[in-house]
Fold this protein.
Amino acid sequence: MSLFRKPKKNVRARGPIDVQEDEGEEDIEILQNSIGDLMKEKKKKKKDKKDKNAEKSEKKSSLLSFEDEEDGGEAFKVKKSSASRKLMKQKKERRYDDQNE
């Protein structure tokens, strides 16, 4: 037994659907023609997109080329904190002490 009851939902029945068979055949032909036209347009747009994407990729590839990289530029260096330097120094001293013993 629960303390709260779920509210009842009102369900509406659908009304009758009238189907006219005379106009149905003409509508089907019109729809088929329009679908065919839409498919042709879609293929055209897809082809245009491929051409544009190919042009963009050619431009991007020239920007990402590493062949023109110069070695004379600044080198990337990692800055080390004083604490890490102290730790490295202690490690070296321990290694040196272990090897001598």
Summary: Residues 21-63 form the longest helix (43 residues). The radius of gyration is 38 Å. The chain has two helices and no strands. The CA atoms of residues 11 and 59 lie 60 Å apart.
